[in-house]
User: Fold these one by one.
Assistant:
Number 1:
Amino acid sequence: MSKFKASMVATVTMVAAAGLASGAHATDGYFAHGIGAKAKGAGGTEIAHAQDSLAIAANPASAVDLGNRLDAGLEVFSPDRSAVIHGNGMAADARYDGNDSKLFAVPEFGLVRQINGRSAWGVAVYGNGGMNTDYAVNPFGRFGATRSAGVNLEQLFISPTYAYRLTERQSVGVSLDILVQAFYAKGLSPFASASQDPANFSNRSKDTVLGSGVRIGYLAHITDKLAFGASWKSRTKAGDFKKYSGLFAEGGSFDSPSTYGVGLSYQATAPLNLAFDVRKINYSEVKSVGNPLSQLFLGAPFGSDNGPGFGWRDVTTYKVGANYAISPRLTVRGGYSHSDQPIAASETFLNILAPATVQDQYTTGATWALTSDLELTGYVLVAPKKTVKGAGSIPASFGGGEADISLAETAVGVSVGWRH
């Protein structure tokens, strides 16, 4: 089998595998903090510092700098989700554990090939994010819910990419973002009476939809040591979740929001590279994510055109990373990422289902060159527990009081890279 055919077989295989991955990957809100094992080990920095083929998912223009390579990785992700309801008139104060599902496998795959000295193509397959909660004891049982509660959102992106070198030091690139998105919710029956379509609100099994958008990137090597990158991702329009048309605003709409960011990469010494990224995620532009619960009390029921959502705010993330080549065969790295808090204290009640409260992530990793063509990369991510305490969070019609929500995360990953 030719190298080209082998690469394409690997692509199809990884697409199928990634399509089965569970979606509990939430560090920048419900977006992954980075894409690709090397970037993840360096705090998620990659807009101006491409180290493997998955970097094209952050900046398509980097494809012309990567040579011919293939990367396949797997992350094992463990979130720790919990909620406390207190001062509520319906029942006594209680803490709820959302970890009935504890471990999640998240595969990713990238391929880049040079067309000639000025252009390249590639494809990245990755989970851009997701959210999952699984409460064996239903927090909404005090309002009449039965059995367990939780949600699961999975987002798989397949991004074919083309890049072109404008000059010796500047390149541009574009990706088509193809989204495969799945969702289910369970145990939310007490809220269905506040929906315009209560039959399609909860316990409707998994629903899967497709979507598409574009990403544009620019990369400039300003000097031999300093590089600048910029990237913009459009809002990814997705089909409506018909099984949950009574839960999400606009009859089940749940698009992926637009993002944009810039990055710097500085080769401080021959072995040491420093990188810095800033990214903005526009959660509020998607009504199912950004609309506050208070829409319900302004006459907009769940599922309506301007119905309630999770009340998430737009966030800006700041990432810094360092890569140090100890020897030609061994590179070590580390990084830190900080995100704004997407969840306001007034919006914690519904976000018992999606407690994406984490703001700080610490990462470390290393790459070992097994041969001149083959390398192995590993990384670890730790996100300390962050709690958002409710303030005016539970409506009086549900007995008042407050919901406090918490999340902590740990992830380990490994990737194999092949330069060919």
Number 2:
Amino acid sequence: MAVSRGEFSSRIGFIMAAAGSAVGLGNVWGFPTQTASNGGAAFVLVYLVLAFCLAYPAFMAEILIGRYGQANAVTSLQKMSSKAWQKRFAFIVGFGGIICASLILSFYGILAGWMMSFAVESAAEIAGLQSIASWAVSDSVARNVFFTTLFMFLTVFIIRRGVEQGIEKWSKRLMPMMIGLLILLIGYVMTLDGAMQGLEAYLNPDISRVLEPNLLVSALGQAFFSLSLGTSVMVIYGSYIAKKENMVTIGAQVTLIDVSIAFLAGLLIIPAMYVAQAQGVQIFADDGSLIAGPTLVFTVLPSLFDGMGGLGLFIGLAFFLLMSIAALTSSISMLEGPVSYAVERHNIDRKKATTIIGLVILLISFGIISNLGVMLGFVATLSTEYGQPIIAMLCCVFAGWIWQRSSLLAEIKQGNETVEDSLFWKVWPWYTKFVCPVAIGGVFVHSLL
């Protein structure tokens, strides 16, 4: 290969980067919203079980494919293929993941821009700049274009610097900052009236609901989405892991961090919703359903912060900074997928490829902004409800049906010589071959219905 590849310099570097990719707006806000909409603690219990029993095996398939191939998603999948039709199939799956990641980033950048705009509003009000504060949260094309461009600039800036100096370096900085902010906000919200009621709803499961079909499918979908499966992200991140590392342990650690931060996010959001309700903000409709769903973050929480007086400005600033950081740790992974393909398959300079691809995705974002009411939902549904399940399922098919078992075992044994005698090797190949494709297929069928 003409282009030299980067590599994570340490295990903690990969773990922070992979967990950062997994922990984004979908986890910090999406998971608590799903929890509130699907039985509270019952959803949490099912999510935790499925994350380790189904999402973790699929996650392992993707990072193992990447480390084996030591290349972008397309090349890695093709290295596993021995026949012409398999190589063509590999191109479709790998390039499909790259397209999926690009589409997700195109609308994700808009949502992240809104998070940044609310952080700017709080900062501007603290500084007494009321006109800037009002503009930052106005529903205008100019505001959307400005903050989306700003967010994409930050994403491009990090990816231009490569694996070790870009992705790894900034993930190590941003992830601890995000976790620290999350814990501080949880501590404060727990002191407010109504928080204990929210905590009980979050931690006291109604066991009779855990087998409800909609709850099961929603929890499974959240588990796969939160680990960035089906976007080529974990394939390319896996390709940057040194051969000496124990992949079984690393995969478990990333899954544990991802699930833990989702759980922490629930400890913040669910009690905060009940605090807002105690202050007179309507959270649930008469039938018990959640009002407004994901958009609650822009309505309920600002109302909660407003009710805190002057202190609420600082709490609001901290919260929306937290959301912006969570978004950035995910966006850099989404951009790395197409950039690595352009650099390695077409021998384009990394900085040039990052800038060009970033601009193309930004132009797609502008197209979405021009017809926000229709395009935002369409692109989000196309990429997350259709694209991700299909690509994740096909990656499991590759690992389970196309990759030769002896070659797969040899790859895992690098860094884990005794894996052949472990419970993981006795269970995981069968899981990946049969259970994971069927489970992800179920999520996809549900999205169609």
Number 3:
Amino acid sequence: MSFCTVLLARFQHELIEAGCDEAGRGCLAGPVFAAAVILPHDFEHPLLNDSKQITEELRYALRTEIEQKAIAYAVASCDNLEIDEINILNASFLAMHRAVEKLHMQPQLLLIDGNRFNKHHTIPHQCIIGGDGKYLSIAAASILAKTYRDDYMREIAALHPEYEWHSNKGYPTIKHRRTVLSIGYTPYHRRTFKVTSLITAQPETEVL
């Protein structure tokens, strides 16, 4: 894992911008979480990076620092039922909308990790492919979304320990898929994410 990437503090310098990112799109079970973060103009951290590129220990250490130093931050989610109803892409956007709405100040520009987004009210947005590895605010949002979702998955893991969500966080590992094929879904599974065999393609990024 690399810790040497230097991320940019701002996309522009005129508007109040919030970085937005999500976690859990490729999972078989659990919600998708999203975060929105507004950082100070002078915020910097040499280790802050895309949550997929750093260790779990560092993610939680960074979460504490982000929450202490951010001008505003918020975390929100869409559960598995909503995901099944509106699809994972729209649920990811909706979770970001909810996070933005929870901020105690309204941003004037949203920086979105990815190449698509559903416009939120009248707030302009900028989609940035790989943005969580380019801008500090998006990286910070990725850290919060990932750690809060991991916390949630550990909580519900106690209800269905056979699926090992405490370790796989709901991602389609071979053990997780084997358990689904053997004993079926739980109320937390996304029913539109079909598990038909153990050779189902893995998500693009599996972060445990």
Number 4:
Amino acid sequence: MTTRIILTITSFIIALVTNAQKLDNSLLWKISGNGLEKPSYLYGTMHAVCETNIDEDVMKAFEETDQLYLELDMDDPNLQASMMNGLMMKDGITITSLISEDDAKLLDAFLIKNVGYSLSLINTFKPFMVSTMYLPKLLDCPMKAVDLELMKISKEQNEETFGLETVEDQLAVFDRIPYKVQIEELMKVAKNGLVNDKKEIQKMLTVYKSENIEEMLKLTKDSDNKITSKFSEELLIKRNKNWIPIIEKVVKEKPTFIGVGAGHLAGNNGVIKLLQKQGYNVEPIK
């Protein structure tokens, strides 16, 4: 009985220490152990950057793996059609039904200037999805996407690309975040003319370049945008937990390169620690 109590306490202390440990600054992590014959790799991406962080270590990891998994299967021929269906708000709700006439005029002028579409053309879109349309305007450079760069490498190596979730799964998240909150954030941006968002993305780019994944997660929690700061359960945690069984399955089948948003890596409910809790060695490649 005494031995069992000691073992329980020891396990509890180890769990606490593991959860408290700060993760190293690295976007690339090696997944091994737990019966795996060959290692797989986990990599933190960013959807809008000036320069990708892809280096020799990333290329070496690609050479050691046989397939690519991203958040979405970007090669899916039905992706565009599925995305169009998921862009719309449910129950006939429109953006103009959520705001005043004066705000609608202001938002229309903002969208024409920064997106190239009038509000009338995208009135049924989920407000958060409208926000993604002006992403290129936040950068002082031609926009690149790390995910697309990974896909390019995968194609050059004649490897297939798969997704950890469907586009329907991903877009459904924004039905669970109140449309009212989404439109409030969109109107904030329209009224301040992208100023705050430009500052925020510049901070994010600097931290991403430094590969500080702990700070990446902190930036999302401290964001002035309520969608990212108040709804991490929907945006990050639930999705991380849903991905773990899929990741476990595919890494057992063959060595896999896995690319997910860098904000998903860190934290007690981040992909790294969730995999470690399942018994895998997940180590930084510096």
